[in-house]
Fold this sequence. Notes:
It contains five helices and six strands. The radius of gyration is 19 Å and the shape is extended. A three-stranded mixed sheet has the order 4-1-5. The protein has a three-stranded antiparallel sheet with strand order 2-3-6, with no helix packed on it. The protein has one domain: Orthogonal Bundle (434 Repressor (Amino-terminal Domain)), CATH 1.10.260. The termini are far apart. β2 and β3 (107-111) form a beta hairpin. The protein has 150 residues and is an alpha+beta fold.
Amino acid sequence: xxxxxxxxxxxxxxxxxxxxxxxxxxxxxxxxxxxxxxxxxxxxxxxxxxxxxxxxxxxxxxxxxxxxxxxxxxxxxxxxxxxxxxxxxxxxxxxxxxxxxxxxxxxxxxxxxxxxxxxxxxxxxxxxxxxxxxxxxxxxxxxxxxxxxx
Length: 150
């Protein structure tokens, strides 16, 4: 029997059927968690020492290393990467080429294609900073304008 393969969208959480916004957040958190665990393993130190460096308990380090994604927010992961001498750059880019309409209660919100963005993180270990968050948009002059239709 031939196996059936379905190509991935590039986001496993989207492929598994999560709502798009939740799938994107899970992807971002998992990318940061993977980067953090790689850096922890590269240190070659005990969980107790890593806990001291990160300012968290040893059981939290264990949760990190066991991939317990649901226990860590984006902010917590970014902060821990910062404790290990990394910065996280945020980039925002267009995701669609057509207008989208969202239903919010009885109102419809039309989001023009030119202001639809998705966020992505890029880790940089060449810069050492405590709380450096850089955000860029492809077109800084573009304002997000929402048209509400009653």
